[in-house]
Design a protein that fits this description.
three-stranded antiparallel β-sheet; 4 helices; four-stranded antiparallel β-sheet; 20% strand; alpha+beta; 189 residues; elongated
């Protein structure tokens, strides 16, 4: 959908006539028009709306690639994430018995146990664990436990963050009304 149509919908919710709202403030004008303010709130509110919508209601999942996947000898794998990554639907390595849908935080108590000498406390192919982390260059990644050295990505699906590009933004239909509500709420604050 076009960003202008989203902005028109927000204006209607605010009680404004979209035809009467200025499109730009022009040169030399102070401040932003209402359309420009809505446009600035569009991406963060759309991302928040998608993240807050139950994942089974969302459409538009993309396949997660295995570019940059590395597996250490100790069973730890590191998977760099795409730049537009917002949330994970599921991930399964070839050695895992089932996919994982939950990404645990880097500060989770389970993360500290992954280097433990008692293997019953570590992630395994029957009980795989996925943690959020960053690569050496600061890019977001997933840390996967436990993976044998020859392991590869069997399946993976993620939701991209809705980012306006060339006047178009992709917002899953299930998250659209929530996105409009978040924009209105933000503007009224």
């Amino acid at each position: 959908m076009t960003t202008d149509s989203v902005i028109d919908d927000v204006l209607l919710l605010l009680g404004e006539d979209p035809e009467l709202c200025l499109h730009s403030s022009g040169s030399g004008a102070c401040g932003l028009t209402l359309r420009e303010r809505i446009g600035r709130e569009l991406a963060p509110c759309a991302s928040r709306a998608v993240a807050d919508t139950p994942r089974m209601q969302l459409t538009g999942w993309r396949r997660l690639g295995s570019d940059g996947l590395s597996v250490d000898a100790d069973g730890r794998a590191l998977l760099p994430l795409p730049a537009d990554f917002l949330s994970l639907f599921s991930l399964r390595m070839t050695s895992w018995s089932h996919p994982v849908a939950e990404v645990l935080g880097a500060d989770s108590w389970l993360r500290r146990l992954q280097g433990n000498r008692w293997h019953g406390l570590r992630g395994s192919p029957q009980r795989p664990l996925v943690f959020a982390t960053v690569t050496d260059d600061g890019s977001p990644a997933l840390e996967l436990f436990s993976c044998p050295a020859e392991d590869t990505l069997a399946e993976g699906w993620y939701m991209p963050a809705p980012v306006p590009a060339d006047g178009v933004i992709e917002i899953p239909p299930a998250a659209y009304r929530r996105c409009l509500g978040y924009i209105v709420e933000t503007l009224r604050m």
